Amino acid sequence: MSEGRERQATARIGVLPRRALVPVAVAAAFLYSNFLIDWVLRGFHGLDIVVSLLASPGQPNAAVLRVTDVVCAVLVLLLLPAFFAALPPGPTRKVVAWTMVAFALGVVAAVIVPAPCGPEHLCASTSDRLDEPIHDAASILSEVSLFVSAAATWFAMRSTGPNWFRRAAWGTFWVGGVALNLLFGWYLEVSDSPTAEGLAGYVQRLHILSVSAWILCIGIHASRAAPLCAEEEPW
């Protein structure tokens, strides 16, 4: 590697050297889709279970899922300064930064207050009935923030930057954030089909994979882009 390229690879943007951005994004993307870990540990069963129920008290892999969720949130925050620096200057990238922070905080909050009742268990106690809406609110905060961040990224880069990244932002919002969420809600809350809950689990996993793909795209773009305004902090 030439001296110039080596200097570029080791240059720090925020807390991470440029060469670390993609590996960190890969790790964060994998950990966000930690239902794959649960699936393997369960003996390749359980893909039809709503994901939040996998981390509820008493589930065999709950601790693993909660820890990996928190680690994922931390890794996303580590990516944020470099991603922020790679976005065009303007108020929209502040929206990107703060919604990504809200995403990470929502993930952690959903870990602190997990879904109280696992698969095939009804929430009967007062404590369970209190925890369930808190967990749901934290999950919704995380989800909405992530997809607003993707939409804001597309808006900030609508006339600049690589085409593939703009398309990734557009697709993340409309496919992962809108279409798959609507389909998930339909199966879980509206459909009376006997297979609806299982189908909701499968659709939810596609939705989660779309988030993982977006996290990976963030790391790749941040690693390739020249900082546009690196001296300004995201907050």
Automatic annotation (TrEMBL):
The keyword Transmembrane applies. The keyword Magnesium does not apply. Pfam families: DUF998. InterPro entries: DUF998 (IPR009339). Coiled coil: none annotated. Keywords: Membrane, Transmembrane, Transmembrane helix. Signal peptide: none annotated. The chain crosses the membrane at residues 20-41, 61-83, 95-117, 137-156, 168-188. This is DUF998 domain-containing protein. It comes from Occultella aeris.
